[in-house]
Structures are given as structure tokens and as C-alpha cells.
Amino acid sequence: MTDRDGAPDPAPGLVLTAPGDTAFLFDPGALCLELLTTGGPGDLSRFEALHRPPDLTDWLPRSRLRLPPGSVRITAEQLTDARTLRDALWRLAAARAHGTTGTAADHAALNRAAVHPPLVPQIAPDGTAAAPLPADGAQLVSTLARDAIALLTGPYADRIRECGAHDCRLLFVDTSRPGRRRWCSMERCGNRNKVRALRARRESEEPAAGAVPAATHRTFTS
After folding, report:
1. What are the DSSP calls for 39-59, one per residue?
2. Is the pLDDT of residue 209 over 60?
């Protein structure tokens, strides 16, 4: 597929940068899970990126929605609603990743957010997708909530995973056919795991420091 300028559509997912790391592509497999990269509840609040309404509008071009900056009007109250939805979804998706369903309160938060009308798709005169304008933050939050509900009630609900790295909590939908995806990104956590495994294998094969190789003994018989 191509964009309006004839260039190939960008790969789905977000380009993230972890502290001390190079940038890597993370595709969580669902629009609603892309929102989780902007912060979260509890100790995840240290990653908060949605401080002002423009922070959320700046996220839109990088999300699957691919909306231009400023295309959605967002008030301070609607930004709060987006963070409330995101935090509830964090808890629900993490619960699914660990085999439970989450709380009734968080499910109710998703339902409340989904009540508003969603973003309305439009088509441009040239036949391509157009920005769903005019639009506001309530429509955006509803679209995200409806996507979350579709994920949590759909065939991939049991494919929600948490990255297998001990120091990564990113959540994604495993849409691979065998269902054995372990890492948020092979570029980052998958590669780090390979490096650690290779280092551990090499260390286990090296003789202990100072050890003397065993001598070869021959037994002579008369």
C-alpha cells in the first residue's frame, strides 16, 4: 500500500527509544495498545508523556491512526479522560497477559469512554482516506476504548502478551501463526536476549580461571 504521495505506507508500530538504547520499532498489534506507550498507572507514571493536550495530538501521527498534528481538538478534561482510559487498559491488558480478566471498575471505565461517538472515517476526492474532521478528544477516546473492547472480547484476547525480558513490561498482541512471540521487538529485547544467551554459553564453555587442564593418562598392562 502507498500513502497519498505515492510512497509506501510506513510499517505499523511506533518508534521508541529506551533510556541508553537506540531507537527501535515496536508494533503492539493494536491501536489501543499503542496508547500504553505514553505512560501508565502506579510506577509506570514515571514514563508519563501526556502532560498537555498537544502531547496527545502530537502522538496521533505516530499511531496507527496516522492523523496529522492538530487534526483533533483536545481539551484538558478530554486529556484526563484519555489518561484514565489508558490506565484502566494497562491493568486490563496486563491481567489478560497473566491469565486473568481484571476488575469490574476498569471494564466500566472502558464502557464509559466508548459511549461517545467515535472518529468518523472519511474519503478524499482522490479516493484515499481523509482525516476524520472535525473531531474532538471525546471521539478519539471513544475510538480507543472501542478498539480496546474489540481486542479484549475478540479472538486475540488470549494472545495479549507481556515482553519476556525481565526489565521490559511492554504489552502486545501475538498475531503470529504459531503464537510464540516472546519479545516486544526483536531489534531490542529479542536481540538483547540473544546476546545474553551467547555470552552465558561462552562463559560456561570457558575453563575456570586458573584451572589446569586434566592430563591424559595411559594405563599400561603387562
Report:
1. --SGGGGGG---SSHHHHHHH
2. no
